[in-house]
Specification:
By secondary structure, the protein is of the alpha+beta class. Helices cover 47% and strands 16% of the residues. The chain contains twelve helices and five strands. A five-stranded antiparallel sheet has the order 2-1-5-4-3. A hairpin with a 5-residue loop joins strand 3 and strand 4. The longest helix has 17 residues.
């Protein structure tokens, strides 16, 4: 008399069976509620927030996750920031690939830039289709705890924060942190996925967006105040980062405000 042994489940089947048993009332992302300086979110194909960690929810003055479900970035952020986030999300939906170490620049009421580091990954259904995006956001101050080997960059960022409007020499910046320009470049790429030059330019363009939203803003004055050699150079870099000219951006903002 022979006995038939059942075949062991494959790792994929074992994992799928386990995940299906997890209750919707105990989502994995609740773990992020207990991680300092880290916020989690997930969106659907319509860019609507579907779930978020406590830190993400409280950041906008809400008390419960249900208060934020269904909202988009345009409901929560200034239009200029929401446009940037939407552009990143559209890129992920189009490529199916993550966007990592995105440096998101925010400005205080005093016009001082602060930044956060965002990582976004696509969410797939069981047929391999991208159905959403999940991401984590961490302040640079929080991320410093994880980036001990790169803390020399912190001095460079402090200098950039003070001088990005008047121009920053990469050679001078490297000297301040006691690195060679090549070492500084490597550490910036490792930390932020961008060269020091690209990082500084992104900061200048974000400052330009803030300036263009002010009443009576003039493109030539904004270009001059941010250290661009002429309006043509400003227009070139602005279009490269924002996907439109400063004039079109200014008109769109005034149209929305009107």
């Amino acid at each position: 008399m022979s006995t038939t042994r059942s075949r062991p489940e494959s790792p994929a089947a074992l994992r799928e069976r386990f995940i299906r048993r997890v209750s919707a009332d105990s989502p994995f992302y609740r773990l992020f509620d207990h991680l300092p300086d880290l916020a989690f979110f997930a969106k659907d194909r319509e860019f609507r927030l579907m779930c978020a960690s406590r830190r993400f929810v409280e950041r906008f003055g809400f008390t419960d996750e249900s208060d934020i479900v269904g909202k988009t970035d345009f409901d929560l952020f200034p239009a200029r920031l929401a446009e940037n986030f939407r552009r990143d999300d559209e890129g992920i939906f189009g490529s199916g690939k993550p966007k990592l170490n995105i440096v998101e620049l925010f400005f205080t009421d005093q016009g001082i830039p602060d930044w956060f580091v965002t990582n976004k990954l696509p969410l797939f259904d069981d047929k391999g289709r991208v159905i959403g995006i999940m991401g984590i956001v961490q302040s640079f101050e929080g991320k410093k705890q994880v980036l001990q080997p790169y803390l020399q960059i912190d001095r460079a960022l402090a200098y950039i924060r003070e001088h990005f409007r008047t121009g920053v020499s990469i050679t001078e910046l490297a000297q301040i942190v006691h690195l060679s320009p090549r070492q500084l470049h490597r550490k910036f790429v490792e930390t932020f996925g961008a060269s020091p030059q690209a990082f500084i330019m992104k900061l200048r363009i974000q400052a330009a967006c803030e300036a263009l939203q002010k009443e009576g803003a003039q493109i030539t004055e904004v270009a001059r105040d941010l250290g661009f050699c002429d309006q043509s150079a400003f227009t070139h870099h602005f279009h490269r980062h924002m996907g439109m000219t400063p004039l079109k951006y200014l008109r769109q903002f005034r149209l929305r405000r009107g």
